[in-house]
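Example record

The entry below shows one chain as it appears in the dataset: sequence first, then structure tokens.
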Amino acid sequence: MSAAYLEAYRSGRLEEKIRRSLRWLKRCTLCPRFCKVDRLEGEEGYCRTGRQAVVASYGPHFGEERPLVGRRGSGTIFFSHCNLYCIFCQNYDISHGGQGVPVSAKELARIMVHLQQQGCHNINFVTPSHVLAQILEALPPAVEMGLSIPLVYNCGGYERASALRLLDGIVDIYMPDFKFWDAAVAAEMCDAPDYPERARNALREMHRQVGDLELDIAGVAERGLLVRHLVMPNRLAGTAAVVNFIANDISRGTYLNLMDQYHACGEARGKPLLARRITHEEFEEALEAAQQAGLRRLDERHKHWVNLKF
């Protein structure tokens, strides 16, 4: 299976998507913050990113889900800043602190090709929502340099479905978070009470574009949707409602990674409901909710528990 963007490049659809996305940057409404600043002229809105994307780091990553990592790693590119700024962000220095270097389209293209040359199975854009246009802009020079591996859109879930349609026929693998089910919790955690609705619509659009996750003969992802959900202390994430939505509104064939690595970072330290890690019982409850909802494609690291429990 060839990467989707190659056909878009050959047909000219990629160039049209670039033109449209850059027009959006002129009065930026790419994400639900609707800042309407002129990013083409370097103005910065909520995401603190102007004309150029800012890259914090890049390289083969072996800590992602097995279908992305395979044997040679996922070629991750970590973008600085964010359109969410969760108060407990696990990459706080990158998202809130903005550590990184601005890159041109050609520089971003060279990074992608370099990761492919290192043997990575895919290009994994981490926190890409606010630099969607810059990613599209970098693809033609990357293709001309030989890029051909799948693209992974690894986002926080706070998306505009209309902006995601710019990526239809471009992105091969979507990997969104679904962070919070409750609007009040989302308002407290990232000043985005509309997050649950935006995430639901985003997952629907992503699944419409790419369907359930498809693997090659070696078990490496080629195309499809992979959802992440971070289990939080005191049921703050609304896990039971999230997994029921995924099972009933998206697909019971959805590949789901329930994550147990929450720890208090950034502004979460000292907040009573956020100051501790989750308990074993809380994570068992989350896994059981996913099973009861009918989700069976849980990330491989949970298979041992699932086989014992059910």
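Notes for this example: The chain has twelve helices and nine strands. The chain has one domain: 4-309.
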